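Q: I'm writing up a methods section and want to include an example of the input and output format. Could you take the sequence below and give the corresponding predicted structure tokens, formatted cleanly so I can copy it straight into the document?
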Amino acid sequence: MGAAYFYHLTRRPLDETLVALLGRARQAGWRIAVRGRDRDRLAWLDEKLWLGPEDGFLPHGLAGGPHDALQPVLLTDQDAAANDPQCVMAIDGADVAPEEVQALERVCILFDGADAAAVQLARGQWRTLTQAGCSAQYWSEESGRWEKKAET
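A: Here is the clean output for your methods example:
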């Protein structure tokens, strides 16, 4: 049974934080689906990932290509990812079901701390997932480094 990790972004932008988390997930040997709600935003993120990080290439693809099933990291706006991920990283308020959290190794929910609507949505996701019996952790970077602030 997996867990949901909530990342409250207050200092670093989404693309920078996502690169770090994707690197760790890849080191664990996981295939990852980055789930968003807006295709244009995912295309922007695809471009950002192609440009960095400087110390190595992060293999990935934008869903809709001929090799989606082979992608170690697939950017998608669909609930079901063709690359059979062990980890889902939800951005921009993308939905996550309790059954997914329980079936996957990990679900990461990244949300912008400067966006009141995003914070409220993340709080609702926390309630929904924890009330369904999912393990969850809340991480904040407000001190300048990531710190675990809550766990169920």
